[in-house]
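Notes, p. 3: input format for complexes.
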Amino acid sequence: MNDVVLTGDRPTGPLHLGHYFGSLANRVRLQDLHPMYVLIADYQVITDRDLPGEIRRHTMELLLDYLAIGIDPAKVTIFQHSAIPELNQLLLPFLSLVSVAELGRNPTVKDEIAHSSQAAVSGLMFTYPVHQAADILFCKGTLVPVGKDQLPHLEVARLVARRFNDRYGEVFPLPKAMMGAQPMLKGLDGGKMSKSRGNAIALSATEDKTALLIRKARTDAERLITFEEERRPEVANLLTLAGLCLGRPPAELAEEIGDGGAATLKRVATEAVNEFLRPIRRRRAELTEGDARRILAEGNERARERAVRTLEEVRAAMGF
Ligand code: ATP
Ligand code: MG
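Output follows (320 residues plus magnesium ion):
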């Protein structure tokens, strides 16, 4: 079977190194092999906050980040939820396929509720994994490059596809997750690196900003640098970051740094990250917002055509 790739990100802020090593690197590799859709998940911004915030600016930033890391709009369809009504309409039949108990058990949703800034948990928070099933299934996506937090959602998408097929006949292939080199990169506070948790190194951060963020990262008091993820998580995290950027094992870097202490570790990490991000930042500076807007308009049109066809198929299968 020829795979179709679907992935996406919420326009809640600039993309960061967690995205890169969790998902973006795989996207760049896969775009030469398979048809690929990249979703700017704008409707999902309001799962964990009351207002969409600076949605237009964040959408533009996301687009520029995609182009800067090497996503090629000639090969990839980049689109947004809010432009594809037919995709969103799949949510209704799909919601009928899952139970309230199943929605309540999702561990990623539980974690996001814990970090949410909302006073009350919205219905959308519980149902957005089903919306994500629609994101994947509208284009009959089969391969989904994601970070670890997305695995429970992939299970929901598989469940929805399976149950739809059982009830109404074979329409959807079962999607599978593809994890990157680092399925869960930690942020500078030790939690999951996230756009909206203030603990990320953005791909678009300046060299100075990157240096500042790493300087402020927590370490411990031991002078000898060792790679011990359980016992010394903060030090291990900086070594991991540097190792990913240099393409080297973190334990090897630790040995090299030896008794150089936290100061040397931070210098090594800062140089590694800045070196890695330099070409991405350079490409980003060459891009214009006009180009990005045109690319999104074209992507939306292509994605919408795809969604119209799938919705027709779904309606026919259900006997409407
Ligand atoms: P937010 O805080 O707004 O939820 P986020 O940083 O979690 O933002 P998303 O847009 O929710 O980013 O996720 C986009 C994709 O990036 C998903 O596939 C997710 O699994 C992956 N991803 C996000 N953070 C990380 C991380 N720290 N490590 C690896 N992959 C990640
Ligand atoms: Mg997230």
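The mean pLDDT is 96.
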